[in-house]
Amino acid sequence: MRLTEPTPWSDDRFELGEGARWVDGRLVLVDLLAGRLLETTGDAPAPLRELRRLDAPLGAVAPIAGQPGGWLAATGTGIAALTGTDGYRQVADLESANPSPARMNDAVADPHGRFWAGSMAYDTTPGAGTLYRYAGSGAPVPVVTGLTIANGPAFDAAGTTMYLADTPRGEVDRFTVDPRTGDLSGREPFLRLAPAEGAPDGMTVDAAGHLWVALWGGYAVRRYRPDGTLDHELRLPTAQPTSVCLGGPTLTRLFITTAHHALTPRPPLDGALLAIDTQTPGLPTHPATPPR
User: Fold this and answer.
1) What is the tens place of the pLDDT at every residue in 224-235?
2) What's this model's pTM, rounded to 2 decimal places?
3) What 8-state DSSP symbol labels residue 210?
4) Tell me, what's the pLDDT at 43?
5) By C-alpha distance, which of 59, 21, 31 is closest to 287?
6) What is the largest CA-CA distance in the chain?
7) Nearest to 22 by CA among 278, 275, 255
8) Distance in angstroms (rounded) separating the CA atoms of residues 100 and 98
9) Averaged pLDDT for residues 197-204
10) Would you name the residues annotated as active-site residues?
């Protein structure tokens, strides 16, 4: 089944679909504000299957190394380990003391097993968001502060380059990552987008080192070369794409989550999970180091 146009991959529609990841031969994603973790196959459109439902927003998950069915989750005001059908253990509470009521947002594990999770204020207070790094023991470390809505991060194949979006500011910055410690250095602007282009949301790096960016409000996903120049723009029938994932058996099927949050009236495809085939494969989803 070859997909040449963005194609709805289920009948589900989400207020805020997010966090698409290709894990163990299936697509995993979240219904963020509803706290739902879902999965589907990459073979053909089908109803999504609910894996977990939490009583707090669920920003994104990473599989836990050596624990089939276990997930490290950016949820509520911190990080939690999800195991089995209903196991839940809070690893860290990170945002309860924030002067602005806040929640966790996007998150991902890097090639070295470190879990990187961003936060945001519910009212999008400028500067209230933080990117945290968690290596499986000790307390998560705040590594980038002063963000508004942290999205991404996305890592290259070696885990030595990280891209991080601050969505309302229309900015994506690039960092150098120390592979041994996870320390960041060399922060530099990578993208600066005008409001009319849309705002950078979820991102992923493909096997050629190009960055795919979902453009909230922009009706598009873009692929950028490592030098920051635009390689390709994919126009979408939905206003608010939120995350991108290259999956399927050859990692060349692009899955795009979208949202109908705050859209009135709601167009029929907004909030849908979309799929289209590409030429360049993505990178494997990395597991997180088990929390201790």
Assistant:
1) 999 999 999 999
2) 0.97
3) P
4) 84
5) 21
6) 50
7) 255
8) 5
9) 98
10) 201
Measuring CA to CA, which residue among 244, 193, 189 is closest to residue 214?
A: 244
Where residue 135 falls (left for φ over 0; alpha for ψ -120 to 50; beta otherwise) is alpha
E-assigned strands of 69-155? 71-75, 78-83, 87-93, 102-109, 115-121, 129-134, 141-147, 150-155
- pLDDT > 80? residue 1: no
User: H or E segment at 5?
Assistant: none
Backbone angles phi, psi at 197, to 5 degrees: -80, -15
Domain covering 7-277, topology: Neuraminidase (2.120.10)
**Does residue 76 carry a pLDDT above 90?**
yes
Among 82, 90, 34, residue whose Cα is nearest residue 61: 82
CB 82 within 8 A of CB 115: no
The answer on pLDDT for 202 being more than 80 is yes
- Name the band, by pLDDT with cuts 50, 70 and 90, for residue 240: very high
- Residue 247, both tokens: 């999956």
DSSP code of 206? B
- Averaged pLDDT for residues 109-136: 98
Q: Name residue 23's amino acid.
A: V
Task: Give tens-digit pLDDT for 7-64.
Answer: 999 999 999 999 999 999 999 999 999 999 999 988 889 999 999 999 999 999 999 9
42-59 exposure pattern, b = at least 16 Cβ within 10 A, e = fewer? beeeeebeebbebeebbb
Q: Counting every residue, how long is the chain?
A: 292
Count other Cβ atoms within 10 Å, centred on residue 189: 10
Domain boundaries, the chain: 7-277
CB 134 within 8 A of CB 118: no
Question: What is the overall mean pLDDT for the chain?
Answer: 97
| Residues with Cβ within 8 Å of residue 223, at least 6 apart in sequence | 206, 210, 211, 212, 213, 230, 231, 232, 233, 234
CA distance 117 to 197: 26
